[in-house]
Amino acid sequence: MTGSTPQNDHEHPHDLVGIGIGPFNLSLAALAHGVPGGLDTAFFEQRPAFHWHPGLLIEGATLQVPFLADLVTLADPASPWSFLAYLRSLDRLYPFYFAEKFHIQRAEYDAYCRWVSGLLPGLHFGHQVDSVRWNPERTLFEIDFTQIDADGEAEALGRAYARHIVLGVGTEPYVPEPLRPLADAPGVPVLHSADYLDHRDRLVAAEHVTVIGSGQSGAEIFLDLLRARPAGAEKIHWLTRTEAFAPMEYSKLGLEHFTPDYTRYFHALPEPTRNDLVPRQWQLHKGIDTDTLAAVHDELYRRTLHGGWPDAVLTPGVRVRTAGRVGATKIELHLEHVQQGARTRLTTDAVVLATGYRERPVDRMLAGLDPYLRHDSAGRPRIDHAFRLVLDDSVTGNVYVQNAEKHTHGVGAPDLGLAAWRSATILNSLTGKEPYPLPRRTAFTSFGLEQREAPRIPAQSPELTPLTDKA
């Protein structure tokens, strides 16, 4: 749903208001649509339409999770919003069946999500949420928003009321401190991988390109640029701070870290243990798919068939100390090898930063809730097992979070494979029932000596009123 929203649409309290419409809140909206008795929901997104990492939809790039990790299937295989239902709507089930593709292309996943977002009711694009407050007199959340027109300009102000809210604002591109001045300067070709496709032609035409970052995005961009540049004159560097261009942990038992069983185990660990564990698990989610690594090597090897080596440099263990401009068009990177302690300078014409993402700050939006929030020893919000912010007891509504709980729920927080399970957990908590029965065991691995079963989540006041009973 786009465009204007009649003011009286939000005058009555919604059961749930979602802030942000990425895959995770889209999953929640789709599953909420199927709750028996109905839920009155509204989801707000400041962008004009759904798009999932459009700058990284490189031709041929695939998801790192199977197609079953769609918005709904792992919680409700019979949902009308599944990926298979999407294929059926396009009469593509048999072609997909014969293609035997367990991992679909990113562009196809994006198209599937846009199909859902175009049909699912209660989604309001072009709506920027400005603030959230708790109204103790009405025992409701107040959500102030601005409607944005097609040019990105403020069009109208509005307010919605909700018994519960869920934050799904996603992440934002991370630019390392030494490179921020260049990335922010107009006309300087230093860009984050999130914007890669918008600048691909310019990067392909550049005399020399440097890619920084050792994850999947860095590998895919390096490979795409390598394939587009002439043999013997590639003039491309790939640098990373990690000690190796390491493969992602993708063994069957390794993948069990992305199960509800492990999430429950991790949440029950002491806070200091969780803090120590997350950085050491980087290869579970920051490594490179082995097929992509093989494709990079194959392309480099192909360019040696007639003698000589490609003009491509791949160096791990390197950090960027500082960076600046040289002349009108060049960029100079001051590099240091972490193990050798050696330093050098690299002059390049363009830099692509495949340096990942960080949780999007919501301090300003949630300033009105700050007196009610409870924090851990590091100042981060405390989040319970049902993905609820821990609030003062005087707040009877719930604030749920999606992909903002890595410090409490572990490396699976941003994983698409846990989206449907988390959405179902939130809806079970919100309704106090089990519209989506969840599996009690999901892994062969027992992650601790004390076995923990999935806890039952009691309902919290205020009680929800079925949509059909509302005036």
How would you describe the overall organization of this protein?
With 471 residues, this protein is an alpha/beta fold. The chain has twelve helices and 17 strands. Helix 1 (23-32) crosses helix 12 (419-431) and helix 7 (216-228) packs parallel to helix 10. The two termini are 23 Å apart. The relative contact order is 0.16.
Question: In a nutshell, what does this entry contain?
Answer:
The chain has 471 residues and is α/β, with parallel strands linked by helices.
**SS elements, strand count:** 17
Distance between the termini: 23 Å
Mean pLDDT: 92
Q: Oligomeric form of this entry?
A: single chain
Q: Quickly count the helices.
A: 12
Helix content: 10-25%
How much β-strand is present in the residues? 15-25%
- Rg is 24 Å
Q: What class, by secondary structure content? A: alpha/beta
Low-confidence stretches: 465-471
Sheet with the most strands, sense and barrel status: 7 strands, mixed
Overall body shape? globular
Order of helices and strands: EHEHHHEEEEEHEHEHEHHHEEEEEEEHH
